[in-house]
Design goal:
By secondary structure, the chain is an alpha+beta fold. Helix content is 29%, strand content 27%. The structure holds adenosine monophosphate (AMP) and glycine (GLY). Adenosine monophosphate binds at residues 118, 141, 143, 150, 153, 155, 175, 177-178, 182, 204, 214, 261, 272-273.
Length: 415
């Protein structure tokens, strides 16, 4: 099978890497990719948001499968363009990607499907926002309705701050605060069949102890030794399958990766958000532990034949990804800082450096080119072992101003 991965981040590096070691895959291409992805794929300088250009590239390369990584092209309808060109595409249609593209739409689907989520009010005026904040109470949760790259959500005890965020957005969803640990559960879907992956956990805040501003994600691990038994079956029955069924009923089937961001609250599980693509950085440790070949799963999902292939299986052990971010992230990430030390790590040692915001400078040196620079991903016998290997990897890499959290998977590794 010939494959083409669209995107440029750590998630796309993990997906391209998993495809490259799948015996069924003869070629991996990526657009636009990054220097890490270039180690496992042939890169093509095509704009991921340009559906016509992506479809033309897929046709020219004669690929059997396109995998669209990020949300922006999905919400823009790039998967529709690829399918219209007669090429199988893993990634939901523009209509189905609204589950991520509009938080108000996602709430409406959850209501119709009976999926447990936070009570919420959609507000377009300051008066409506003030009334919703008073009704739902503190801590206040105010979400920009549209795509905001993980930065559209404000959770605060400060009413003024909550009102200010609402005023700064055109349309917001104000919702009740959800307590309890968060879980990322991903499912491969073909519009009707749903195959959940192992649960993972992401660390969204920039600093240790969940302090500081939200980021795209500073680290992740899988599986979750503390997760209640039956969690995956429970989420499949109460969240994933009802949502996929409701989308099919509406005539906009969801085929692609459905990402349920969940809170395990004192009153039971609740959906925090849906995303319409693999999560970043959770995909990095998940791909490190995936035992089944990836291409047949994604191809079957893209062609409505998921029940013809076996569900994914997993290697024993644990995987941990620690993100190294650039100086100034998330407010004002620095770029062009020279990165050293990535060459010494390799999959053979079970420590893998997955590139996100990296580039080559004029002299061919590896430099930073974005907020999240790399995710050092390690596999170990258990979380403590995987953590130790990942941090050993982090300490062998350096660039000016590098930032990372020291507590990724720490609490979970202590049992
Ligand atoms: P979202 O973009 O919806 O995933 O929100 C980003 C982050 O904000 C989530 O991962 C949570 O940590 C936090 N968050 C979102 N909604 C809520 C909520 N209703 N209660 C508490 N925290 C939330
Ligand atoms: N890990 C968070 C996200 O991918 O949105």
């Amino acid at each position: 099978m010939r494959t083409l991965v669209i995107g440029t981040g750590g998630r796309e590096h993990a997906l391209a890497w998993a495809l490259s070691r799948d015996p069924a895959v003869s070629e991996v291409h990526a657009a636009p990719g990054n220097p890490g992805i270039a180690e496992v794929a042939t890169l093509h300088p095509v704009d991921p948001l340009d559906g016509a250009a992506v479809a033309a590239l897929a046709r020219r390369l004669g690929v059997d499968l396109v995998v669209v990584g990020p949300e922006a092209p999905l919400v823009a309808g790039v998967a529709d363009d690829v399918r219209a060109a007669g090429v199988a595409c893993f990634g939901p249609s523009r209509a189905a990607a609204r589950l991520e593209g509009s938080k108000a739409f996602a709430k409406e689907v959850m209501r119709a499907a009976g999926v447990p989520t936070a009570r919420a009010r959609v507000c377009t005026t300051p008066e409506e926002a003030a009334a919703a904040l008073a009704e739902l109470g503190s801590p206040y949760v105010v979400k920009d309705d549209g795509l905001a790259a993980g930065k559209g959500v404000v959770v605060t005890d400060d009413l003024e701050g909550a009102l200010a965020h609402a005023a700064a957005c055109e349309r917001v969803v104000v919702e009740e605060y959800l307590d309890g640990p968060e879980v990322s559960l991903f499912a491969i879907c073909d519009g009707s069949t749903v195959y959940p992956l192992q649960p993972a956990q992401d660390f969204k805040r920039i600093f240790d102890g969940d302090e500081g501003p939200n980021t795209g994600g500073m680290g992740a691990y899988t599986p979750l030794p503390w997760a209640p038994p039956g969690l995956v079956d429970d989420v499949l029955a109460t969240v994933l399958q009802p949502t996929v069924d409701e989308m099919a009923r509406r005539g906009t089937p969801f085929a692609g990766l459905l990402y349920a961001g969940l809170a395990l609250t004192s009153r039971g599980l609740r959906v925090v958000e849906f995303n319409a693509r693999f999560g970043d950085p959770e995909t990095q440790p998940l791909m490190a532990l995936l035992a089944s070949p990836l291409a047949p799963l994604l191809h079957a999902a893209a062609t409505g034949t998921l029940s013809d292939v076996p569900p994914p299986t997993w290697r024993p052990g644990s995987a941990v990804a620690v993100v190294m971010a650039s100086k100034g992230y998330p407010e004002s990430p620095s770029s062009g800082d020279v990165i050293v030390g990535t060459e010494t790590l390799s999959v053979e040692t079970d420590v893998h450096v997955l590139h996100a915001g990296t580039a080559r400078d004029a002299e061919g040196r590896l430099v930073t080119a974005g907020g999240r620079v790399l995710a050092v991903t390690a596999v170990g016998a258990d979380l403590a072992d995987a953590r130790a290997k990942a941090y050993e990897g982090v300490h062998s890499i350096s660039f000016p101003g590098a930032q990372w959290r020291t507590d990724i998977a720490l609490e979970a590794s202590r049992g």
